[in-house]
Amino acid sequence: MAKAAAFICSACGAAHAKWAGRCDACGAWNTLQEESAKAGPGRAPKAGRAIPLSGLDAEERPAPRAASGMAELDRVLGGGLVPGSAVLLAGDPGIGKSTLLLQAAARFAARGLSTIYISGEEASAQVRMRARRLELSDAPVRLGAETALSDILATLEAERPGLVIIDSIQTMWTDAADSAPGSVGQVRAVAHQLTAFAKRRGTAVILVGHVTKEGQIAGPRVVEHMVDTVLHFEGERGHQFRILRGVKNRFGATDEIGVFEMTGAGLAEIGNPSELFLSERGQPAPGSVVFAGIEGSRPLLVELQALVAPTPHAQPRRTVVGWDGGRLAMILAVLEARCGIPFAGLDVYLNVAGGLKIAEPAADLAVAAALLSAREGEPLAHDTVVFGEISLSGALRPVSQTENRLKEARKLGFTSAILPEGGKPGPSGGLELTRMGQLADLAGGTFGAG
Ligand code: TYD
Ligand code: MG
After folding, report:
1. Which residues pair with 258 in a beta bridge?
2. DSSP states of 255-294
3. pTM of the entire structure?
4. What is the side-by-side order of every strand in the sheet holding 257-263?
């Protein structure tokens, strides 16, 4: 048999016949790793057997789910864990993955799901120590410290648990691949065998994956394709907030987030995240604007902070934390082209408070308001929320769930809102609404700029 592509890019998973310093698929450097020919699922083909086929109208019962009782986790999973499903929990080292999963394991186990926690990174004594600190020592979770996948699978075959947690996939190794633990070949082979076990025995499997500085799951992006659900655990070091985000889910929506706060006694669920994200808000200041956002099914108010200052550099800086840099460039271009407000010669910094990442286009208008407020040195009224999408023409577009956003704003004591015209008018809920058709209305009307 001819040897197939033997080098896999650990960043994007592209296969290459030859080694090269740079992956020509994604452009990453030093990411190509050799994969042995016998790695991976496809070894010598066996004679096939006929598989049963069925019609499209076959009766399908919804998969029964196991809920942990941690609402912030269950929501992101789509209502709980589906038996036989494979979940990847990815995040930076030290972000709190082991803590979260030990807490989740205890909750699942306490609700009668037989749960095994395999640690390849820490000795059992260390995990027990963490359990004591989290006051979970009494939970009926069974613990193993092992990195040899064959021994783990033999144990699982004998025990047939409802849930197994593998912490982490990078520490596990199998004979099915020649390369070192943590290499792409190993991680792929381990993930393949564990997901196959999950399907075969109906055991839910949660794999922990560390991500690298570049935000990629070390070793394999490919694991993302092999599992049913991918969750990212995010947060800024030095901030106590942690966000659990669904980025892929075969059994539920992917736009849900779970919000947690790190405490000395582990992760605490935050049922009303708006309060938390606004808790650090100081006095009214230029550049500070509260965006009324929606994450999944939940409204979420968050503070945006902008700083605009004359630049000493030929090329002004554009620095964004928690939002899309390309989108910021677009808003700056629209402000200049449609409102006549230039940002040339000015450094622009934009920050989403609390370490949250926002992807909604509905944040456009709030970003524009923060930029204008910072540029003009004029604070926006402290009790105002802003939301709306901006088009390239400078027109404002209504966004979804206007009522939910307004309701959350009122609940948290805001008294007015700036939003686009059009869409369903809906009740204002007692808020004073300023509806605008054009970005120029905000620039000229609210800030007297342009
Ligand atoms: P850990 O769960 O070990 O992170 P990961 O498995 O992602 O590498 O957590 C890292 C450290 O933070 C650990 O020393 C425990 C501490 N920690 C807390 O004190 N409280 C918390 O709520 C969390 C999540 C972590
Ligand atoms: Mg860990």
Report:
1. 244
2. S-EEEEEEETTEEEE-S-HHHHHHTT--S--TTEEEEEEE
3. 0.81
4. 142-145, 115-119, 163-167, 204-210, 86-91, 229-234, 241-249, 257-263, 266-269
Provide CB contacts within 8 A for 243, sequence distance 6+.
233, 234, 235, 257, 258, 259, 260, 355, 356, 357
Cα of 249 vs centre of ligand 1, distance in Å, is 25
Residue 294, marked binder: no
Instruction: Order the strands of the 384-386 sheet from edge to edge.
Output: 318-321, 346-352, 298-310, 288-295, 384-386, 416-420, 432-436
Ligand 1 binding pocket includes 120 (Cβ within 6 Å): no
- pLDDT confidence tier of residue 9, bands split at 50, 70 and 90: confident
Paired tokens of 49: 């057997």
Q: Is 341 annotated as a binding-site member?
A: no
Any known ligand binding at 424? no
> In which region does residue 246 sit, left (phi positive, over 0), alpha (psi from -120 to 50) or beta (all else)?
beta
Q: In this predicted model, what pLDDT tens digit does every residue of 264-286 receive, in sequence order?
A: 899 999 988 888 888 778 888 99
**276-446 maps to which CATH number?**
3.30.230.10
Q: Which spans in 82-133 are helix H?
A: 97-110, 124-133
Residue 125's contacts (CB-CB under 8 Å, 6 or more residues apart) are none
Cβ of 235 closer than 6 Å to ligand 1, yes or no, is no
Q: What's the pLDDT tens digit per position in 395-440?
A: 999 999 999 999 999 988 999 999 999 876 666 668 899 999 999 9
Which residues are found with C-beta within 5 Å of the ion, ligand 2?
98
Nearest 5°: the CA angle 174, 80, 293 is: 110
Q: Is 394 annotated as a binding residue?
A: no
Q: Which atom of ligand 1 is nearest to the CA of 242?
A: 24
96 lines ligand 1 (CB under 6 A): yes
The answer as to CATH 3.60.15.10 being correct for domain 71-271 is: no
C-beta 326 within 6 A of ligand 1: no
